[in-house]
Amino acid sequence: MKADKRLFILALDGTPYSLLKRLMDEGVMPNLKKLIAGGSFHSLNSVQPPLSSVAWASFMTGEKPAKHGIFGFIERDPETLNWFVPKADRLRAPTLFHILSELKQRVFVMNVPMTYPPPKVNGIAICGFLGSDIARGTYPPAVGSFLKAKGYVIDADVEIAKKDLNRFYRELQRVLEKRIEMMWHFYDQETWNFFMTHIMETDRLHHLFWKYFEEDSQPFAGMFRDFYGRIDRLLGEVSAKIPEDSALMLLSDHGFTRLKLEVYLNRWLAENGYLFYESVPPKSLRDMHPFSKAYSLYPGRIYVNLKGREKKGSVNPGLEYERLCGELSEKLLKIRDPQGNPVIKEVRRGYEVYGIPNEINEPIFVDPLKLGAVPDLIALPYEGYDLKGVLWHSTVFDQTVFNGTHTVDDAFLFVKNFPLNLVPESIDRIFNPILAFFND
Ligand SMILES: [Zn+2]
What's the distance, CA 357 to chain centroid? Predict the structure, then answer.
């Protein structure tokens, strides 16, 4: 291994390949266009489900969810029916940041989702959006106090968008500018081998501004383009700052599309006689009635209320379980939105999508009692439907201020001075090329 290997990674959360092509064609991103002429630019798939915490966990471990242990933003403990938010301490596979640190590479990692609590790297780690206070979100800890004093924040406050989209845009700009300023501050401190910064603001922009961009509705469509204009100037700064022969990688973790409708699966389960509550409205899963047959967690994960696994389990493993899974799958596929369009494209067993957990060593018969966090079923929607997991909502379908949603395809990968024997198909396949680069 050569001591002077250098890789600079800039991650743009949720930026679609097709969007970048369009913005280059429209002249919004001249620096990107210039960069791309000197490297290779590809579309990339996310993992299922295409959520930032799951996809970045796959990026940093090279594994699918069943192996790295992150399935969504929320998990339940079946024995207590308590909810919790899985964080980096739940990762069950070693990360790039740890491995490269062990290889004595100097590592800087900023704002990548699923890095809270921050990894103890040979360098600096600044947590991503599951951390709440930056003062406690860095390694070494002194970096956190410094960032806090500088006015750095982990994430823009999406609550602002519900009241005032103009103000939210200014908030996004403020958060982005501070991140860029601090990124260069640390970049200039020393020669890093692995330097990675994650921009979350693109994803936030898309969730709130996507329909305006799509409809070319002003002033928000213009603001959307201006935001990417700033991202492009950042790429210009990157090109100017990093050494000519340094390896460069730009990537996103999922694509984006117009959000047609939010779909509240627990409401659907309740209306169809699969989910009951002991009190209404229920405050948590613990208020689920023992008669319940199934419940759902975001996005589209369906758990059978299985005897021997769930606290109030009512469904027997074996024939009853299999029948219920079959029945639910059939009925879910028949859901129609108020316009009569089908909503669910496919229903699959959770282990087919997430992978089989380590606890199961006989994949011919997957014992549902051993599935752990892997859902029994996963509903995969047609593009534009967001399968919500909140327990109580007054309707099955709804529309809110959010108007963009994730897609599993149409993420992107750009590399320059970085060897790729094969173009990675999905975000979990970039891990090995990065390790190979540093081990070469
Ligand atoms: Zn998002």
Answer: 20
- CB under 5 Å of ion ligand 1: residues: 203
Please tell me the distance between residue 52's alpha carbon and the centre of ligand 1 in angstroms.
Answer: 7
pLDDT tens readout for residues 146-179 = 999 999 999 999 999 999 999 999 999 999 999 9
Q: What would the two tokens of residue 402 be?
A: 């959010």
**Cβ-contact 127, 109 below 8 angstroms:** no
Centre of ligand 1 to C-alpha 14, Å, is: 6
pLDDT band at 66 (very low <50, low <70, confident <90, very high): confident
Q: Which domains does the chain have, with CATH numbers?
A: 7-258+406-439 (3.40.720.10), 261-398 (no CATH)
Could you tell me the distance, in angstroms and rounded to a whole number, from the CA of residue 254 to the centre of ligand 1? 9
For residue 390, give both structure tokens. 């909140």
* pLDDT given for residue 2 in this prediction: 54
- What spacing in Å lies between the alpha carbon of 204 and ligand 1's midpoint? 6
Q: Which ranges constitute the DSSP H helices of 259-363?
A: 265-271, 319-333, 350-354
Q: Which amino acid is at 27?
A: G
What are 220-253's pLDDT values in tens digits?
Answer: 999 999 999 999 999 999 999 999 999 999 999 9
Amino acid, res. 378: I
Distance CA 146, CA 142 (A): 6
Where b means 16+ CB within 10 Å and e means fewer, 399-432 reads: eeebbbbbbbbbbbbbbbbbeeeeebebbbbbbe
- Show the DSSP H helices in 188-279 as ranges: 201-214, 220-241, 265-271
Q: Secondary structure of the chain: what % helix, strand, coil (to 5)?
A: 35, 20, 45
Whole-number Å distance, alpha carbon 79 to ligand 1 midpoint, is 30
Coil, helix or strand for 51? Answer: coil
Query: Shortest CA distance to 354 belongs to which of 317, 309, 301?
Result: 301
